[in-house]
Amino acid sequence: xxSAVQKFSQTLQSFxxxxxGDTLTDDEINIxxxxxxxxxxxxxxxxxxxxxxxxxxxxLIKPLENFRKEQIGFTKERKKKFExxxxxxxxxxxxxxxxxxxxxxxxxxxxxxxxxxxxxxxFESSLEYVYQIQEVQESxxxxxxxxxxxxxxxxxxxxxxxxxxxQDFLPYKQQLxxxxxxxxxxxxxxxxxxxxxxxxxxxxxLTCKLPGQPTIEGYLYTQEKWALGISWVKYYCQYEKxxxxxxxxxxxxKPGAKQGTLDLTLKSCVRRKTDSIDKRFCFxxxxxxxxxxxxxxxxxxxxxxxxxxxxxxxxxxYHSPITKQEEMELNEVGFKFVRKCINAVETKGITTEGxxxxxxxxxxxxxxxxxFFDPKCPxxxxxxxxxxxxxxxxxxxxxxxxxxxxxxxxxxxxxELVLAAKSENLDYRLGAIHALVYKLPDKNREMLELLIQHLxxxxxxxxxxxxxxxxxxxxxGPTLMRAQExxxxxxxxxxxxxxxxxxxxxxxxxxxxxPPEDTTAPxxxxxxxxxxxxxxxxxxxxxxxxxxxxxxASVEESGGYSCSSGLPAASVPVPRSRHRRAxxxxxxxxxxxxxxxxxxxxxxxxxxxxxVGLVARLQxxxxxxxxxxxxxVVASAALRTATLQARRPAPRPGIYGREGECDGVPKPxxxxxxxxxxxxxxxxxxPPCRAxxxxxxxxxxxxxxxTAEEMxxxx
Length: 715
Description:
By secondary structure, the chain is of the alpha+beta class. It has helices spanning 2-14, 26-97, 105-143, 145-203, 301-310, 332-348, 362-372, 390-402, 414-421, 426-437, 442-459, 462-465, 469-480, 488-492, 494-506, 508-511, 611-619, 637-642, 701-705, and strands at 208-209, 216-226, 229-240, 245-250, 262-271, 282-287, 293-297, 591-592, 598-599.
């Protein structure tokens, strides 16, 4: 399993995303870097797991094998020696008892000396064998439990790391989920525009519109009036918008005709009324070179729409009110409509969930627009009445803005606004958009301020309506900004149009507090030598909490002995752990000793003694031994020999204080009470009762000078 996870981590590390377009959004950068963050996270977990497996060998298996070989194996050798010396002694004793008393006195004395020597050897072997048995029985109490305890510490250290990584991962997960949602919203918006573009391209496959240029060319039929009637002549036409020149090359030239290419200068273009001619897809143009109008016929409705857009064509007056040229501009009626819609939304629908995202009925939208833009009584509609719901009002407002002859943020500034949104420098982004806003015409800037202020008010209620600035950017980006040409490249820039609107919402106060000092856009910043200003989100690598040291941090700190067994620190295995994220020790910080007492950074309890001193006092019934070194190791020879004698075990110390206990020292219990083993909680709670912490020994010279009997019980 670990090997499979490691391979998966390597695959994530080497995976590369491919993106369409020349620039990535901040959310796309976060997504592109996410697999590397995942790979580092998995690698860190598996590295800790491998250390845990290594600790199982170093801390558990090897110490137990060494104890079996060294202690138990040595005891077996003592047993063999004891049995051999005993057999030798008893056989000699049998021979000695069968000696005749008639032998010489010197022979008998020599035999007695041999027997005494063998008896001494036998007694010495038996004493060493019994002592070795006792030593094994006593030492296995800590020599066997200690490796298991160390392994459990390593196991829980691994589990603790996974908990900490989870805590570090949660903020990153939330930020990445937000980036994913924003990217999904941009994708949905772009997909709708691309579907519409694909549909239009299918309807007019013969139309050739050069991307990014105002020139359009293709076949058109021209109405030619002759004395005997009317005919339609096919021309190949090329129109240059900047010069307003139309070149018409006839395609059906008759033999002997002198008709050649016509170069005309366009004055106006109007769509031909449907009921005024028996041909479809017609529009009229006026030129400087010819008097009267020239009627042209396009190949399809979509083709006619493209020619009229290129020629800035107008609609006939009789058409639906919303599509009149008067209402297609930012005029007084349009401002009145927008203000009434905003007032209605903020009055009765500002907390509606999904406001502006939920689409209203097309029939109701057209009904509202036709009623409001009625030329007989324009603007005479009460949007506060119950006849119009919020979905209809919001959809009507978006329809009006989307069908303006020129978007609110104008075609002229479209490219500069998109380039500003693509900048890696966040300060430049804001400064450039700030400057470009004040390049808009007065009416456009006034309308934009009116709309953005409204969107800010909507976003202030995002807890109720669930509409954030990012969501509003997705909705109003294509509405307030749209490219003049219909190309796939223009569709791929929709996400940057959304970012422009999002920046306007988030920084509305600064942008509309006044024009920048220099109304021109700031220069493009030079390539940065340092890293990108807006760095992708990463999993926070916060320092780990200090891990408790189970078997003594070092020989220097603990006086050459571990705080749990009294053995030299060099003989006790230390758990393997990584120190990459270890934090610096805090001043006066306390760590939890494995025996349950509170120890400072040097492994000392507040009374200046280590954990072994606490065990020794508990085993002696609470009395402190007289011969005790400063590091907590018992130095008295009497105490070492006393371990051979049978002794009633002392009460075990609790790991954490129970009721009526302080500093990990339990109350004396009666003979009838059973010892209670308490399992520590996930995190050590504060002791139920906290006795006054005694001063350290170096601060109490009177205690240092006194004997053990004079030490106060609280210490």
